[in-house]
Amino acid sequence: MLAVDPGLTRCGLGVVEGEARALRMVAVGVVRTSSDRDTGDRLAYVQDELDAWLDRFDPDAIALERVYAADHVPTVMTTAQVSGLVLLAGARRGLPVALHTPTEVKAAVTGSGRADKSQVTSMVTRILSLPEAPTPADAADALALAICHQWRGAGSARRELAAASERARLRAVAGP
What we know:
Layout: E1 2-5, E2 10-19, E3 22-32, H1 39-57, E4 62-65, H2 73-93, E5 97-100, H3 102-110, H4 117-127, H5 137-152, H6 154-174
Parallel strand pairs: 1-4, 4-5
Antiparallel strand pairs: 1-2, 2-3
Helix pairs in contact: 1-2, 3-5, 4-5, 5-6
C-alpha cells in the first residue's frame, strides 16, 4: 500500500506491507520541487515520481491525506493540485484511493488527534520498528498515513477496490 502526504514543495511517500500489528516499512521518501520552477513543471515532476513509485512497488491501494483548509490559501491550492494527481493516478490504474484527515492519522498512530509532529514521528518509528526516525516530517507523515490506513481503512479499502473493479468493468463495456 502506498501512502502520500501531498505537497508541492515536499511530497511524502511511504510503502508499508502487512496486517494489523505486523506492519513493515518497504520504502519511504520525499519528492522535492523548487519554488523557483513553474508550477506546471513542478506538478509534472511530482507526477513522474509518483508514477515511478507506483510502477516500482505495484501497490494494491493508495492512502492520501485529505486536504484541509488552512490560513495560507496558496499552500492549500498546491496541496490540492498534488492530491488531484494522486487521485487521477489511482483512477487510471484502477486502484482505490482512501482519504484520511490529519486528525484521524494522528489519532490512529498516537491515540490523540492533537499530537504534534515529534509524537507522530516517534510512534511511527516504534510501530514500524525502524532503527531511526524517518526524516523529514513529510516522510514520517506518509508512513503514519500508511499505518492509519492499514489499521482503520482495511474494510473501506476492500469496498473501494470492489468499486474500482466495477468502474473498470463498466468502462471496458462502454468502450472509448
